[in-house]
Amino acid sequence: MVGVRSGPELRSNLKVEAKRMEAQLQSIRRKLRQRLEAEFARGELTAPQRMVMGELVRVEGMSLKELSARVSLAHSTVSGIVDRLEKQGLVERGVHATDRRVTVIRASGAVRKFMKSRMPALTLTPLLKALKRANEKELREVRSGLDTLERLLG
Q1: Hey, is 131 helix, strand or coil?
Q2: CA dist., res. 153 & res. 148, Å (int)
Q3: Taking the CA atoms of the chain, what radius of gyration do you get in angstroms?
Q4: Which among 132, 129, 127, 133 is positioned nearest to 146, based on CA atoms?
Q5: Dist CA 107 CA 137 (whole Å)
Q6: What is the per-residue pLDDT across 71-84, written as a single tens digit (0 to 9) for each?
Q7: Domain map of the chain by residue range?
Q8: What does the DSSP assignment read for 48-116?
Q9: pLDDT in tens, 94-113
Q10: How many Å apart are CA 53 and CA 112, to the nearest integer?
Q11: For residues 104, 107, 109 and 115, what is the CA-based torsion angle, rounded to 10 degrees?
Q12: Quick one: which of 48, 84, 142, 150 has the fewest CB in 10 Å?
């Protein structure tokens, strides 16, 4: 293959190789998330709104204080973001199960349904299409390379 180094030449400049690999991994990630990002763009969310939604999707409900800490934004900023997201039907506020004084914020039912049903297809489809184009040897090489990288990363 053109541009592939091996042996001592590869080891002599690991920093350059690491930067190259990082760039490749970023490119692969962008390609895999392209359809998902297009779907998110249709929702016309700002970057801070997407950060908030990302946390609410990962965690099944949290207080405004917890959410502010997780996204590293001021409490008042996150409160305004949550207000706007609630008006759009993307988040819901509820009462904490054991402390009724605490308000819990969570992704709405519609968002949770989207994440369960639509998101897997948006994220897996590009990878499935690529793997279908691969022959058996290429599939083994991709699997082996990913297994090796994961093991080396610890």
Answers
A1: helix
A2: 9
A3: 21
A4: 127
A5: 42
A6: 999 999 999 999 99
A7: 45-108
A8: HHHHHHHHHHHSS-B-HHHHHHHHT--HHHHHHHHHHHHHTTSEEEEE-SS-TTSEEEEE-HHHHHHHH
A9: 988 888 888 899 999 988 88
A10: 11
A11: -150
A12: 150
In this prediction the pTM is 0.59
Q: Give exposure, 114-138, as e/b (b: 16+ Cβ within 10 Å).
A: beeeebeebeeebeeeeeeeeeeee
Single-letter residue type at 147: D
Which fold does the domain 45-108 belong to in CATH?
Answer: Arc Repressor Mutant, subunit A (1.10.10)
d(CA 98, CA 66): 16
Each residue's pLDDT expressed in tens, for the chain with a length of 154 residues: 445 556 667 677 899 999 999 999 999 988 988 887 777 777 778 889 988 988 898 888 899 999 999 999 999 999 999 999 999 999 999 988 888 888 899 999 988 888 888 877 888 889 999 999 999 999 999 999 999 999 999 9
Residue 61, amino acid: G
Q: Could you tell me the two tokens for 135?
A: 């022959």
